[in-house]
Design goal:
Elements lengths: L28 E10 L2 E11 L4 E5 L6 H8 L10 E4 L2 E2 L7 H6 E4 L11 H9 L11 H13 L16 H13 L8 E5 L7 H16 L3 E6 L2 H7 L2 E6 L2 E7 L5 H9 L29 E10 L2 E9 L3 E5 L8 H6 L7 E6 L8 E2 L10 E2 L3 H5 L6 H6 L15 H14 L16 H14 L4 E5 L7 H16 L3 E5 L3 H7 L2 E6 L2 E7 L5 H9 L3
Parallel strand pairs: 3-8, 3-9, 6-7, 7-8, 13-18, 13-19, 16-17, 17-18
Antiparallel strand pairs: 1-2, 1-4, 4-5, 9-10, 11-12, 11-14, 14-15, 19-20
Helix pairs in contact: 3-4, 3-5, 5-6, 12-13
This protein binds adenosine-5'-triphosphate (ATP).
């Protein structure tokens, strides 16, 4: 294997490799009869799964199908219902047990990565496996930094092990989470579980992560790779298990499958593979287009500087769906945050909503315009984990929901929440359920509903379909389209060309911090977007 050697604890000098030959066929991990109920929700029902040595085994299913629940049971976070059996290399182990041989052989990188972004890679690795100390109990920082560097350097991403992870790129953070999971990994048969590791990665970084995952597999480990993206399964996996509605539908070698067959297994019916992009029904693009209120600008942005952005300006018409895109690092990712006043670094420029006021607002005060943002990183920026579905939904509306004496008008709050849950079809046990009990796609719908419930003239979405399954993606597209038809100006910042093709009436392509190309209407095609992003027109 060149590049990444995935033994983790360099101080211990251990390594895992393709050690087995005679036990070649015995599954490394086998679970059977796995069921889990949360109140009225049957999250898993009698699920069986086996992972072969040295395979990348994908677990795929729509939002809410039970993937994370299965992973959390394996990780000991949830208990399974009685009757479940689990074996590692033929040896029974207790599900829910988080120490001993299970811990040595099953390692996890959860969707939320479990990192403290204010701390460095060194601190984060130490948090998961403890600090090296001198005989007097002092922490041996140089040794810890050396060890961490040795681990992460192998992934070749130039990670500075002393800098806070908040300053790292998404793929660097994912790699730190993987390195943390692999620390102290012994040379025995084991499974690295990756729960939707690409959900918050831009496409350019997805390819790097795939490379790393393959190297881990080539070093002899097995990988259980959770996803709901079919393209990832075909690019990466050896076998795939499909779950739907908490049941295992099938386990198949990927080599024998077509995208259509996999889509049918996932959907349970004849289904086209992937989303068919619809020509947008409204918004003609440019500052003069728009389904409603033609010619009226919903938002004007001038000379915006923030992070990599170097003087970006544009108009958004009412009813327009404006895409903003570019390669990783091009600067397009900064546009939504800067426009909404959510950029954390220095920013300058001017922004205004002309129908509210002719006065320009300094971009440093853009938050005062109250433009809602659907952020890219839902878990960290989108939801308040300790709050219920209802509280997350009505958070920005509290002023409107005040009754006399400043008390909250509970009945109005409940009615509003119920209406939005129905409208965006959130799958939840109820408005009082904690938001973290919802599947990722359903949490995204709550964030979207929260923004829409404010009835803003402008909505800004950043990577709106990250971590969202095909059916939910379609629902979100329709919802966004309907809002635009009603006159809302929508900015969609996305590195997923499928979003841009399906949603946008005009796309601004950013390179080196500047808008280099504007593509409108039927000229918005995959090749046109890719060429403009890469500068190969
Ligand atoms: N702690 C919990 N309490 C109550 N219900 C839960 C809890 N965790 C999950 N659920 C429910 O169990 C079902 C399966 O959820 P799970 O998160 O496992 O789905 P998923 O396949 O991982 O979805 P996604 O792709 O959207 O992340 C969903 O209906 C979810 O709302």
């Amino acid at each position: 294997m060149d590049g990444v050697a995935v033994h983790a604890d360099t101080s211990a000098g251990t390594a895992y490799g393709p050690a087995w030959t005679d036990e070649a066929d015995r599954p490394v991990l086998r679970v059977s009869g796995l069921s889990k109920r949360f109140g009225g929700t049957q999250a898993l029902k009698d699920v069986d799964l086996d992972i072969a040595p040295g395979e990348i085994h994908a677990l795929i299913g729509p939002n809410g199908s039970g993937k994370s629940t299965l992973i959390k049971i394996l990780a000991g976070y949830h208990h399974a219902e009685p009757g479940a059996v689990a074996e590692l290399d033929g040896e029974r182990f207790e599900l829910g047990q988080v120490t001993g041989s299970r811990h040595d052989r099953l390692r996890f990188v959860h969707q939320e990565l479990g990192l403290v972004e204010e701390l460095s890679a060194t601190d984060n690795l130490a948090l998961s496996r403890g600090f090296a100390r001198t005989a007097f109990g002092n922490i041996r920082w140089p040794e810890m930094e050396r060890r961490t560097a040795a681990l992460v350097e192998r992934f070749g991403l130039g990670i500075d092990v002393r800098r806070p992870l908040a300053m790292a790129t998404p793929v660097q953070r994912a790699v730190v989470a993987i390195a943390a999971a692999l620390q102290g990994w012994e040379g025995r048969r084991g499974v690295l579980v990756l729960d939707e590791p690409t959900a918050v990665l831009p496409p350019g970084e997805v390819a790097r992560l795939f490379h790393i995952v393959r190297e881990i597999r080539d070093a002899g480990a097995s990988v259980l790779y959770v996803s709901h993206r079919m393209d990832e399964i075909f690019a990466l996996a050896d076998r795939v298990t499909v779950i739907r509605g908490g049941r295992r539908i099938a386990t198949r070698p990927v080599a024998g499958l077509t995208p259509r067959a996999l889509a049918e297994l996932m959907a349970g019916q004849e289904k086209e593979t992937g989303h068919q992009s619809q020509p947008p029904t409204s918004g003609t693009g440019g500052s003069t287009g728009g389904g409603t209120g033609i010619g009226v600008a919903a938002l004007e942005v001038r000379d915006l500087w923030a992070g990599p952005l170097r003087g970006v300006g544009f108009d958004l018409a009412r009813g327009e769906r404006l895409g903003v895109t570019g390669l990783v690092g091009s600067g397009h990712e900064a546009v939504p945050y800067a426009v909404c006043g959510a950029w954390t670094g220095p920013v300058r420029g001017r922004v205004r909503i002309p129908e509210r006021s002719p006065r320009w607002v300094d971009a440093r005060n853009a938050a005062g315009l109250g433009i809602p943002l659907v952020p890219a990183d839902r878990a960290n920026e989108g939801v308040v984990g300790d709050f219920s579905v209802g509280e997350n939904l009505t958070l920005p509306l509290l002023d409107r929901l005040r009754a006399r004496l400043g008390r909250l008008h509970r009945r109005r709050e409940d009615a509003l929440t119920e209406a939005w849950i129905r409208r965006v079809e959130v799958r939840t046990a109820g408005r009082g359920a904690r938001i973290t009990t919802l599947s990722g796609g359903n949490q995204q719908k709550v964030v979207m509903a929260r923004c829409l419930a404010q009835q803003p003239p402008v909505l800004v979405l950043c990577e709106p379909t990250a971590g969202v399954d095909v059916a939910t993606r379609q629902q979100l597209y329709e919802l966004i389209g309907r809002q635009a038809d009603d006159g809302m100006g929508v900015i969609v910042s996305s590195s997923d060309t499928e979003d841009l093709l399906a949603l946008c009436t005009r796309v601004l392509v950013v390179r080196d911090g500047r808008i280099v190309r504007e593509i409108s209407g039927r000229d918005i095609t995959e090749p046109a977007l890719v060429h403009a992003m890469e500068g190969t027109e």
